[in-house]
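Course assignment 3, question 2. Fill in each field.
Student: A.L.
Task: Predict the tertiary structure for the chain below.
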Amino acid sequence: MKRIVALVGMCGSGKSIVNDYFKALGYTSVYFGGITMDELQKRGLEVTPSNEKMVREGLRKQYGPGAFAILNLPKIEAVLANGNVIIDGLYSWSEYKILKEKFGDDLVVISVYAPPKIRYERLSSRPVRPIASDEAKQRDYAEIENIEKGGPIAMADYTLLNDKDLDSLKEQLKALQKNIP
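Answer field:
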């Protein structure tokens, strides 16, 4: 049976680490945020938090709140034809509902959680696209209020608590792996 695993969590929670773990297991990654990056490049815009927000929200206005699921469905289906899929960055309640309706029980949602203080520290010190704490907080509020990001976090099949070191997260992943064939 082919499996679709979708990762949800606030920015800086550790979704990319979990994504890399599943890729090492042979899953092919579909990065929902790639749509934003592609659109920024297409428009010749610099990658900044404000430009990313503008593009994300613009795509949702154009395609509806399920925009990233809708725009990524062809890619997900193409990858699924050849193997398992890991979706990096499920964002909204609408996207969750679209994917759940399309894939049913073949979709497993994993929430990656870390407290805001820890996430903001990680985000401000990351080597690629660092985000200042105040910008990260603004992004959190926008994602919770404007795209209902809390819904898929609340409905996740599994939750990983990423508030310690990398070894702790990997131990949780090893335990979780037994539950996802």
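Instructor remarks: The domain at 4-177 is CATH 3.40.50.300 (Rossmann fold). Residues 158 and 176 are 8 Å apart (CA to CA).
Grade: pending
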